Predict the 3D structure of the following.
Amino acid sequence: MVKLKINNQEIEAAEGSTILEAARANNIHIPTLCYLKDLTGTGACRVCQVEVKGARNLCAACIYPVSEGMEVYTNSKKALDARRGIVELMLSNHSKNCLQCIRNNNCELQRLAAQVGVREDAFKGEKTKPTFDNASDGIVRDTSKCVLCGRCVNACEKIQGLGVLNYINRGFKTSVGPVFDLSLKDVNCMQCGQCVNVCPVGALHEKETIHEVIEALNDPSKHVIVQTAPAIRAGLGEEFGMPIGTKVTGKMVTALKLCGFDRVYDTNYGADLTIMEEGNEFLHRVKKGGVLPMITSCSPGWINYCEREYPDLLDHLSSCKSPHMMFGAILKSYYAETKGIDPKDIYVVSIMPCVAKKGEINKKENVHEGMQDVDAVLTTRECARLIKMFGINFADLTDSEFDQDMFGEYSGAGVIFGASGGVMEAALRTVADILEKKELKNIEYKAVRGVEGLKEATLEIAGMEIHVAVAHSMKIAKPLLDDIRNGVSKYHFIEIMGCPGGCINGGGMPYISADIRNSGFDYKAKRAAALYTEDEEMPVRKSHENKQIQALYKNYLGEPNSEKAHHLLHTTYNKRERF
């Protein structure tokens, strides 16, 4: 530890820590913009400048190390003037159409400008030529709002190992984007949306489809069905001021019914259906000498990555569609036939934690007889905006249940799909029962749980040793994939999710403020805990024990992996050109 003073207050700080870390550990606030703990640390924006006694110039607190006897002034006139000047310069090249911006009232630059006292345009003149790119299915890039903080650059490189985004040009012409300023649709972007999650402004955001959904809701010829992914219940409340990890399942259902959807279902039913297909596919591969390890296929960001970066491993992917796509296919076949509705008149909306899902619904492999399984995807953030547009006071809503006809039942296994390791655990609950030919009581596979790092387990099931692994983010998954490519993988079954922590940290989930991220608060674990708590409370915790799933197979599909099930619930993959 070293002793120093900040604003004449004597404090201690760990040797090697930065001024910013020392200040925050002692409840001394220093404004930042580019800084995100464990992701950035370049001092790019200079907003955190402070005065250090004896130093020739102001110092960036996020990278300047503490030393014994140091004296720091965070709010001297020199530091305050410099900080305000930096923000004024940022704003001089900013579009400033705040009222029209998707991040209005949730923008770090807005808050920072208010905090440092910027009230007018100090600098006027030419602005850097902007790029507006909305060609990809999920992400919009608008450089007129970019502040060159570098967060997205670091997220793409450090989380996914892709490096799709970087600085382009120099000086006044500097911008951030793909090489040659290409569209995100033309490069190796997996559309995970982690860059969107860390952008402090509206330079990166999801492509909004709220108004298409509203149009469908107001079309009397359309039977509009909405389904919600398991992670939504653990994050939606944050958009209405509730604590992180608050489970809002009942309020969410009530709100969607008030919006006018004809049916409100839970994608957990689709998750149970996925386990029936995927679990039996795994068993078939094990028994018949199929391609192993089998890798899960429910994360479209991961699928995008695999099709471009590891096309030689496509045979290892499960052929199962993701849960919401399976559910959409069932709604436009079994449901339509049972209810006597023309499938073309059914409009399926999925509320997802993911921006890559927006592209998944458009893939030609998922279009049958000219119809998409799912017609529109709204992120968690878009769902909140829809509810607010309809003037619904979310916090005061009473709880409702999902519609119970045909698809109202779901298991705890379906709920935990939203957390990293949840798909693996759900599959093991069913696979173990089938292999052991009995109902096992010990169903919690905690070795595959958690929101950090690679998780591995070796399980003894019916006299077999089954090696499994769980990876979330491509940086963690890559060594596993390289082992498969090199023929040295020891695993039988691998779960891969595109986002760190799984769907509870998807690119379409509510923004987590820089202050919360930098505090070390484990928001991913909080959201995941809400799902595991619901799982524990469920009367049915295994997918194959869902009676409405059993009825679907008895009345319509026949059995898992049947010809009809393959036609509706399975897909194919294609090698895509790597830029």
In short: The radius of gyration is 25 Å. The chain is about 35% helix and 15% strand. The chain has a mean pLDDT of 95. The first strand starts at residue 2 and ends at 6.
